[in-house]
Specification:
Jelly Rolls; 3 helices; 305 residues; 2 domains; 3-stranded antiparallel β-sheet; 12 strands
Length: 305
């Protein structure tokens, strides 16, 4: 079990974000997890607002029950034989680091002895999808001039858009008229690869706060960018499922991929669900390995029939 400090390394109390991001909840549903602490036993890991942000009263994430209400919770502990009543399905565990951790991934995997010889297919399956990724972002106006009048909403960050288990990313530009209305997210890979599709999920918020435009660009030098996909009006057929955006004709290797989300001028905030570029890379790589081994071309994305 984690301690309160391990669960909330950026700080204990309202306004801080637990490891892995806030857990998405609906309306006023609490999400408490048990912690090992001198006093606190239950800590909130979500925000109880309609918007999923710190909005309704104040952010409740990383707030202890005693800190919030001045007393221990009357539920969740079987000390008198009573029925438990904790409103969560999450358990956080702390895994101590290894005594001699490897600082960086190595090119060669650890060799594990086997009890009998195995058939090897080395040389036919590529490099095992080894790669490293660097992520960055910038706010811009519609004419791509850098600006700083927008920021991530409380409880949101650049990393949340890559996490499939939380509500996604939120950008706040204060007013709908703010000309600083797009965010560019760049994922840079050490080894170039061919992207043929990417998945994107709608947020749990209203369609009014969806991005108006969704663009994918690619580059090898961060100066010359080529458009792979452009949606002039982003729409989702089903708000409970991710959607694959396919540009299968692309056959070029690129190291840098940029996604551009343009905010609707009718809303001061923009919500984006899970952006699946990491899954796109791993599935495309696995598809290539499968093709090298079997000679069968199985695409990793949903094809339109």
């Amino acid at each position: 079990m984690v301690t309160w400090a391990q669960l909330c390394p950026t700080g204990q109390g309202p306004g801080n974000v637990p490891v892995g991001g806030m857990i998405k909840g609906e309306n006023y549903v609490d999400n408490y997890v048990a912690v090992e602490d001198e006093n606190e036993r239950w800590v909130q890991i979500s925000s109880r607002s309609y918007t999923g942000q710190c909005g309704y009263d104040k952010c409740t994430s990383c707030r202890g029950h005693i800190q919030a209400y001045g007393h221990k919770a009357g539920w969740g502990r079987i000390e008198d034989g009573s029925k438990t009543n904790a409103s969560n399905n999450y358990v956080f565990c702390h895994i101590p680091p290894t005594q001699n951790p490897t600082p960086n991934p190595t090119e060669f995997p650890t060799k594990i002895p086997t009890s009998s010889p195995t058939a090897l297919i080395e040389g036919n399956v590529g490099n095992g999808c080894i790669n490293t990724i660097k992520i960055s972002h910038a706010y811009e106006t519609k004419d791509f001039t850098p600006c700083d009048a927008c920021a991530f909403c409380a409880g949101s960050s650049l990393n949340t858009i890559f996490n499939p288990y939380i509500y996604g990313m939120c950008v706040d530009c204060s007013t709908a008229e703010n000309p600083c209305n797009l965010i560019r997210i760049i994922t840079s890979f050490t080894i170039p690869w061919v992207m043929k599709y990417v998945s994107l999920s709608p947020s749990e918020m209203s369609v009014d706060s969806d991005p108006e435009v969704f663009v994918i660009e690619a580059s090898n030098n961060l100066q010359d960018w080529f458009t792979l996909y452009s949606s002039e009006e982003l729409t989702f057929g089903n708000r409970s499922e991710s959607e694959d955006f396919v540009f299968s004709e692309n056959a070029e290797l690129y190291k840098h991929y940029a996604t551009i989300f343009v905010r609707k001028t009718s809303s001061s905030t923009m919500h984006v669900g899970h952006y699946g570029i990491v899954e796109s890379y791993t599935k495309q790589c696995a598809s290539n390995i499968f093709n090298d081994i079997t000679g069968n071309d199985v695409v990793p994305y949903k094809e339109v029939v």
